[in-house]
Design goal:
- The complex is a heterodimer of chains A (163) and B (93).
- Chain A has helices spanning 2-10, 16-57, 65-92, 94-100, 106-131, 136-161.
- Chain A has 163 residues and is mainly α.
- Helices cover 29% and strands 44% of the residues of chain B.
- Chain B is built from three helices and four strands, in the order E-H-E-E-H-E-H.
- A four-stranded antiparallel β-sheet of chain B has the order 2-3-1-4.
- The model of chain B has no long low-confidence stretch (mean pLDDT 92).
- The chains are: A mainly alpha (163), B alpha+beta (93).
């Protein structure tokens, strides 16, 4: 999202509808990609585990809790893997929606969305720091540096190769 | 009418549920069930156990269904104690 929005901004696009369409398309693609990849990989792993267990027990486990889990868990994992980036994309593109309905000026929508994206990345870094029990601030700054690096690279290439 | 008072089963089960959760699940089928599970062998995927179930009137089919639902397999019934009607009457007297 940050990459797309930076690209739109570098290209001088201020119309929030244009940026919103592009970002929503990417968000839907992220959802579909997340769901399908997670479902296929999780299903394959669960099937392999179930097969190994069935071989060891010399009986079918399709009707047992293990069999039901091998059906249900890939679906749950796939939905979480799909909805997580989709919901985050919606949050990042919320300033564009606000600009479209006239709550904020159109010119500020894309920079604001980029800012929201950076805040989301910082928050993610803080959360990762909490999990790994390291410095929260430093973990957040590290992920923020990734977004700044991405923005800088895109701006550099867009100004270098723009006509 | 006969009543099953005790069964000793040779059960092969996956590691999950562990022996404690496995025993609790069987014991929860009736208030008077007493379940003793001994793990005799362990390998990478499964563990062999001896499960002793004692109660006033054990419902074996229900227990078998519950064990299979948890992904385990009853390999054999090693020991049973069954009370006949006369024994029950004498016991009550």
């Amino acid at each position: 999202m940050i990459g797309m929005l930076t690209g739109f901004y570098s290209a001088g696009i201020e119309d929030p509808s244009f940026a919103l369409s592009g970002c929503l398309g990417a968000a839907i693609a992220l959802f579909m990609s997340g769901v399908s990849s997670a479902y296929l990989s999780e299903k394959a792993e669960r099937e392999k585990e179930l097969q190994e267990l069935e071989n060891a027990l010399v009986k079918s486990l399709r009707q047992s809790d293990y069999g039901q889990a091998s059906i249900l868990i890939p679906c749950l994992v796939a939905l979480v893997n799909g909805f997580s980036p989709f919901l985050l994309s919606l949050i990042i593109t919320s300033p564009l929606v606000c600009a479209k309905v006239g709550v904020i000026p159109s010119a500020t929508a894309i920079p604001l969305s980029i800012g929201v994206g950076c805040i989301c990345l910082f928050t993610l870094g803080v959360y990762l720091g909490k999990i790994s029990q390291k410095s929260l601030l430093w973990a957040g700054i590290r992920t923020l540096m990734i977004s700044f690096g991405t923005i800088a690279t895109i701006v550099f290439f867009s100004y270098t190769f723009s006509p | 009418m006969t009543a099953i008072r005790k069964v000793v089963l040779d059960v092969l089960k996956p590691h999950k549920p562990n022996a404690l959760d496995f025993s609790i699940a069987i014991a929860s089928l009736a208030p008077d069930y007493q379940v003793t599970t001994t793990v005799t062998e362990v390998d990478k995927i499964t563990e062999s156990t001896i499960v002793i179930i004692e109660g006033e009137a054990i419902q074996f089919e229900e227990i078998k269904s519950n064990i299979e639902q948890m992904g385990a397999s009853i390999h054999s019934i090693d020991e049973v104690v069954v009370h006949g009607e006369r024994q029950q009457t004498e016991a009550k007297q």
